[in-house]
Amino acid sequence: MAITKTNFINYSRCPRYVALDDLKKEKLQSMVSLAEYRKEEEEEYIKEILGNMFDDGGNDLIDTKNEHLEVMLPYYNMVELLAGDLAPKYFPGTFKYSKSTTDQESFDCMIDNIRYLCYVDIYNETADGFNIIEAKATTTKKYLDLGVKVKDDFGNSQVHSIFMKDEKGIYRLLEEMDVNIEDYMPREKYDVQRAKLFDKYSGPGHYVYDLAVQRYIIENDLKEHASLALVDKIHYYLTVLNSEYVFNGKYECGEPVYETDEQGNDIVAYFDLTKITEEYMVRVELDRQRIVSYIEKLCIDPCPLGIYCEKKKTTKCKYSGICWNILPEKNSIMAYLDGHHGFKDKEGNKYDRFDLINDGYVKMLDVPESLLNREKNIIQHRTVATGKPYMNMAKIRDGIKAIEYPIYHLDFETFPCPLPRYRGEKCYTQSVFQFSLHIEKEPGVCDKFKDHYEYLAPDHKDHREELVKKMCEWIGETGTVLVYNDSFEKTRLKELAELFPTYRTKLLKIRAMIFDLMNIVKTKSSLYESLGYDKKEASMFNYYHADMNGSFSIKKVLPLFSDLTYKGMEVGNGIDALVTYANFPKMNELDYKHKYQKLVEYCQQDTWAMFCVLEGLRASVLESVK
Ligand code: SF4
Predict the structure, then answer these.
(1) Distance (Å) from CA 126 to ligand 1 centroid
(2) pLDDT tens digits, residue range 482-508?
């Protein structure tokens, strides 16, 4: 049989994965063609891109569907090509990379009758050895954030990273540079951050493990072919999108040209992980031995659930639908807010969430109140146990009173493209292509259609200024700009203000007028402390209902206050919206008109939903004083 790098990573999750694969007769085959290999890698890779896209987006993570994969495929291919095109600037020698899929360097080895194989994204042969460069569509931020936060002389916070650029512009660990680590951070903190590179289920560690498996296969291939002397002459690099890079807006034949930016940044950056992957080899060998024993036993029996299932990530195990069905869909132990920190009894003994699940504590109510050390979890528990919603009516009432009229209910749709598309954008900038606005002049006075304003970019040209102009025209000078989960809209408005100086003052004014509706449902300590509540009460939820299932997203809150529903909508969530927009250029005129309208309806529904939630909250307050 043959095991690809991607399968190696998946098979090492747990004993059951390989047995389920065998049952489906999916992967335990003797040969893997390059086309199959590419397809398998593409799917995993695009799921990772989607994960990166919504790191900061305020969207609930999604189950990836084929259309999501298809729409992101060109970006996946582009990142690899850009990294290959830029590599000669950083490395001498000759290069082989994926301009043509038949032109990729491959390695394979046979251990215990199993063949392991991998293809290399960028293969670089130099005078004294070669470099393996793996391209990933994550960003430098994931790696440069490994470090300690410090304040500069002006009080701005910045991170002292465990990585630093060498004279060639390649990132290396501080320990490999001619510097004193203690000048950057205490050694123990450095070690803690460095250790994260070895956690394969963490953001940065995920890609390092991928490269380490690659190295393991390459080294064994070389040993098998008596090229042992070469093993020490190989360097292993990860190349990722540069989060500092700012696109200058230059195009050729309608396509962006990613020249070095004004600060000297290239669109991708390279990390030398030779030392880290070397340390990884022992672990990868142990993982390989585990995989062999899983294949020998092919035990289909349920195994303990764990972090390796990656349940709440886009990279979640494809069999989680089977293994996780022991948990109820609603109000399982996973719905406890902050449950990933575990639970604690009165004596201070800690209980890991997965340990509890594997001991049979699968429902929220299976966890006794005595193990709930966070007050919000006690509220969740009691709400589910009694079936009665929890409400702090005084806080809801005071929160509503703090809103000034008119209310501008505002919502953005964005496309967090891995590669910047317009001037001033960075990789994964949440590029605003649509907004919806409902204006509520007085409490409860708003017509779904007559008081609705919207803008949707008609195509993929840069329509941001047009969008900004409309928004600035329609939002007045006084009142409240109501959003749900304000950090998203606030960041977008700040970015737009920096890009369009003509509208800067107005955009910052709109930003200053923002009030977060979620604060009335969930709470916000600073708001409620300013309204006279003590610290403890200010920090506690204002509202919780068993149907929220541990989430304060508007999609969960809306049905509790209104009959309005997203069910049956052709574009029914943020991901559908961006996929529809991303597909505009591929549509015929008829489809385009239809989908355009569906996008308008979806965004309109989002702001109308905010109006309905606010109305529902007002009605609850009135009801409570009857
Ligand atoms: S869902 Fe978890 S336990 Fe089940 S096969 Fe996947 S990794 Fe293993």
Answers:
(1) 42
(2) 999 999 999 999 999 999 999 999 999
Cis-peptide into 204, omega within 30 deg: no
**CATH number for region 393-624:** 3.30.420
Q: Answer yes or no: are the C-beta atoms of 333 and 353 closer than 8 Å.
A: yes
> Is the distance from the beta carbon of residue 303 to the nearest atom of ligand 1 less than 6 Å?
yes
* Euclidean distance between CA atoms 463 and 455, whole angstroms: 10
Rounded to 5°, the CA angle 354-355-360 comes to 95
Is residue 308 lining ligand 1, measured as CB closer than 6 Å? yes
Q: What pLDDT, on the 0 to 100 scale, is given for residue 35?
A: 65
User: 16 CB under 6 A from ligand 1?
Assistant: yes
Q: Which pLDDT belongs to residue 505?
A: 98
Of 16, 290, 294, 315, best ligand 1 pocket probe by most atoms within 8 Å of the beta carbon: 16
Does residue 13 have its Cβ closer than 6 Å to ligand 1? Answer: yes
User: Which residue ranges make up each domain of the chain?
Assistant: 2-297, 393-624
Q: Is 511 in the pocket of ligand 1 (CB under 6 A)?
A: no
Tens digits of per-residue pLDDT, 241-275? 999 999 999 999 989 999 999 999 999 999 999 99
Between CA 573 and CA 554 the distance in angstroms is 11
What is the distance in A from the centroid of ligand 1 to the CA of 50?
Answer: 21
| Cα→Cα distances 33→30, 38, 301, 455, 592, Å | 10, 9, 31, 47, 37
CB 222 within 8 A of CB 184: no
- For tokens 């289920």, the residue is 201
